Amino acid sequence: MTTTATTLKGQPLDRNVLDSILRRRMFYTPSFEIYGGVSGLYDYGPPGCALQANIIDIWRKHFILEEDMLEVDCSVLTPHDVLKTSGHVDKFADWMCKDPKNGEILRADHFVEDVLETRLRGDKEARGEKIEEKEEADAKKKKKKTKGQAAVKLEDDVVKEYESILAKIDNYNGEQLGDLIKKYDMRNAATGAQPSPPVAFNLMFQTSIGPSSNLPGYLRPETAQGQFLNFAKLLEFNTGGMPFASASVGKSYRNEISPRAGLLRVREFLMAEIEHFVDPEGNKKHHRFHEVETIELALLDRHTQLSGLTTVKHVPIGKAVSEGIVDNETLGYFLARIHLFLKKLGVDQTKIRFRQHMANEMAHYAADCWDAELLTSYGWVECVGCADRSAYDLSVHSQKTGAPLIVRERLDEPKIIREWEVDIEKKKFGPFFKKDGKTVEAAVLATTQEQREKFAKDLEANDNFVIDVPGVADGKVEVGQDLLKIEYRTRTENVREYTPNVIEPSFGIGRILYSLIEHNYWTRSSDGGDEARAVLSFPPSVAPTKVLIVPLSSNKDFAPFIRKLSQKLRTVGISSRIDDSSATIGKRYSRNDELGTPFGITIDFQTIKDGSVTLRERDSTRQVRASEDEIVAAVKSLVDHSKSWADIESELPIFEGQEVEIR
Amino acid sequence: MTTTATTLKGQPLDRNVLDSILRRRMFYTPSFEIYGGVSGLYDYGPPGCALQANIIDIWRKHFILEEDMLEVDCSVLTPHDVLKTSGHVDKFADWMCKDPKNGEILRADHFVEDVLETRLRGDKEARGEKIEEKEEADAKKKKKKTKGQAAVKLEDDVVKEYESILAKIDNYNGEQLGDLIKKYDMRNAATGAQPSPPVAFNLMFQTSIGPSSNLPGYLRPETAQGQFLNFAKLLEFNTGGMPFASASVGKSYRNEISPRAGLLRVREFLMAEIEHFVDPEGNKKHHRFHEVETIELALLDRHTQLSGLTTVKHVPIGKAVSEGIVDNETLGYFLARIHLFLKKLGVDQTKIRFRQHMANEMAHYAADCWDAELLTSYGWVECVGCADRSAYDLSVHSQKTGAPLIVRERLDEPKIIREWEVDIEKKKFGPFFKKDGKTVEAAVLATTQEQREKFAKDLEANDNFVIDVPGVADGKVEVGQDLLKIEYRTRTENVREYTPNVIEPSFGIGRILYSLIEHNYWTRSSDGGDEARAVLSFPPSVAPTKVLIVPLSSNKDFAPFIRKLSQKLRTVGISSRIDDSSATIGKRYSRNDELGTPFGITIDFQTIKDGSVTLRERDSTRQVRASEDEIVAAVKSLVDHSKSWADIESELPIFEGQEVEIR
């Protein structure tokens, strides 16, 4: 977790420099900044907006189109009852503690992490080791931590203890975090005080719907619930076919306790979520698993983490599933597909790992859960979650509302079932038990085959039986033979009913977007010896704008060529921008390297003579020259990744003319 | 306003039938329906979602790409201060009244409208005229209105009065609506009671941001404010160039009092908004106005409405601007561009009009405002607003925060300015007036040239002057000559500073989507004499899915052809779906006509022999047959609208073989 952040070319990554470029070029900017801003809220400017749109577009093609998923767009406003049933009202919380001196509110796990990491840094310093630059960059944090950051050497076994805690930090609950704070005497560096014991803080934004404020609601914390509630309609839309997946792209909201870390921890964020509904019988096989089984993933399983380590294993997903590291084929299939998606976007393959959730970290109903994490200057960041949510959500919503969120499958051959069945005599049963009627009935119907067999014998022998019903009378209830029948019967079933399980790949688009920027960022020194110039080497399909059109000067004769070229590019679906400012061509290209624009087309006096233009590639700064149509065709093939720059160089004449000026 | 709704082919439109198709085919569905639903909240299913995405895609190309607008994506959560400044906290409200008997909450203007329309219908019935079917369809409403809907003949002048009120219904404030309710003794049909006087109800959803609930906020009611707050950054991103436009697509929220009318009045909705920033000097000319000036629009101006009429005039936009019907070229340019956009989507050209806002209806700062309205079975529906917001928003945010939301323009030739200037002696002025210092200073600086000249003379004569400052002392303040200087000076300005005006085209995507469905809906009788079959004749670019692939039967030999065809279509960017269910080909095509799928490709045994397939067009049900590649190319040209179906019929052999079966 504690490697020094690097750029695409392995240079040390200075986050302050990168941040200032991203704000200056309006990739994103704090929302409401002229009003002082609100932490955890950001606006995307034109390049950020285009980058986001391209990521979503690739996501839609990679997942929805490729697998015929059913896209839905559901309401963000969600009534209380839905989120009460789903468990979010009771359990969607983080642990929060308060500094008793200055009232500062801290997120407990982040506080513990910060304190331990600070102490480990102090230890390294005392031992004379090189200190990583992570966190140092954040001037505000640095200031706050001055007190804690003294170079104090720790005992070797204390260092191991700290590292072990950090490796499983996501596995602690509030009480355990409180114990750690006391045990290691952790104090808020700003005040020297020990924070109060952690309490749960629900992360949902609350509001009320309608004019009479009578319907409490929340902003959804995930898009998933809307998809679950529509399950029956989606199944019908899919003409009953299983398995199938729904998908949704939209904003969700979490009232983070103390958001920092820029785009990585925000209160309003774009998610892309898939709910893949699958038959729980038959080990959740996936019919396309063979297509991905040889793909190797970097896995950090839960056993490794619980042993206090963070070592990854590189394993083909086929092997990971067959060895039981990953629970089932469908889950494994999606992990591999997520990997391919991130690769397509241009994520650095050395900075990705799949981390398995530990038991306490996982929702109680989940069968297995893996996060795709990307390494950034903030450490490893969870960008995609992929959980097996079992039948939990569909079951609870069905129980609560009575809506049948199930699949009815015609059986090829009827199933003969022999079992003990209970028939309640409704007319007598209810009046007999009065207010306890429903409770007793539920208890009777919940009995196992073994119990029923015993009760049937009791009835025969004694005309009654005694059943445990907690909360009714003294917990023992006597049921007489006039109130029900228990019989061993044979019946034939032609239809099987089941509640599907759900595999949920869930993508945090903002986190992916930010990590992608860090992974594609590097600097190159300029010929003139100026300061290093930033480059964002996005793949062409991801880049906000594909082409910069650069007339050599503001000469009016260039205007018709600019117009025609931009029109031609638009016709083949390629976005371009024109920079006809008075800056030198070199400066103009540099500015666009910062925006990640992969190609530049120069229009010069030669263009007026013979219609030829030059095409420059961002990463190599090399150029070719050809006719306008050839260049447009070349750009198209580069943007749809059907050709590489090397292909283009082998096909079109290299241009060296303005090399010095344009580099 | 009271025409009977019709389908694309002029048939009477039965909204109940259409609604049930739209829900069954999952264009949209009430959100949280298994929990009983929440009025004003809807989810889009797969076809609705695709339709919405296509509308947005066309919008982006038509506006953002075509005019190089700067797209931004801003936060929905908005702190109180921002919306206080913008005026929304105080004024973003509807008039609400309450039925004293059953507590029902009514939106006052809708209530007045409903009562008067019901009385006019009763009058028509009494006169033996044909009654329109509008509203009748809504069974619930019908029931409620039983009492009011008696066939009572009205005096001729009363009918005129009612019609005149309805024509300007949007022009009444709360008090006036209350007066109308009393004057015409309007009663809630459900109870026979007269509702309470209207009170203002703020339409914003409130929440609080952060763990300590100390930052009150709202869900934005429009995307505009985020764009205004980023003005300075956007201007810089645009390297200072004016005019320019920002644009945003995103959800906004309005806590409607009593939402009905399906997708037309919802609490959560997708908007697409443009803020075009323009220099207020020089009559807001637009450099591309000549491209649109001959386009004829159906205009309903405010004078016509105030005279109680709803007659539209068909006027070329050039003439409308030169005659002052539309305030300026930039506003006129966007009205024409909006018209072209709606036309491109497939809006019925006979069901569109541009209605000008009346004085009371318009925000007080607006210079002019027109709504593009589409005629549906609910009457005329505002789908796009196009307002000249003047410099209001930028000015108030700038005043509140001190951020300079202005343009600085270098003057070609310096401007010599001669005027009275005030220099405050800060060191003495503040201490002298103590707590009133800022107020008095503001009053002094707000003086006109005439006042300054007079004050300068007073100072010379009496060593002081007296200025009106409401709220300070008795409203009169004496200012001595030691506190300031007032002098007539000459200075040279090289830079002009101004606050841009804003022209704002604002699109309600859900309303456009619904109106578009009604405009493209019709029914055709089937050959077999079954019930009428629904068709949604969306233009190919708008249709949710472009192609249905239909194998003649479930024969396994078809599988490779299906796969290859769907792959080929995907490669050229065309979405397709496969229907290999066991229904007849005719049934399968019928189902897809309901979804608006424009083309169908049949794979049959001939395909296996020679690779040829048939292509069916949805509206004519006619077919051609050719090789797979020819058909894919034909579909591509049809979808990008470079060819018409007539072109294809003239190029490829007509196929009549399965006509009866496939119609």
Automatic annotation (TrEMBL), chains A, B:
Its EC number is 6.1.1.14. Residues 204-551 form the Aminoacyl-transfer RNA synthetases class-II family profile domain. Pfam families: HGTP_anticodon. PROSITE patterns: AA_TRNA_LIGASE_II. It is found in: Cytoplasm. One of its GO terms (biological process) is mitochondrial glycyl-tRNA aminoacylation. Catalyzes the ATP-dependent ligation of glycine to the 3'-end of its cognate tRNA, via the formation of an aminoacyl-adenylate intermediate (Gly-AMP). Also produces diadenosine tetraphosphate (Ap4A), a universal pleiotropic signaling molecule needed for cell regulation pathways, by direct condensation of 2 ATPs. Thereby, may play a special role in Ap4A homeostasis. This is glycine--tRNA ligase. It comes from Lasiosphaeris hirsuta. The lineage of its organism: Eukaryota, Fungi, Dikarya, Ascomycota, Pezizomycotina.
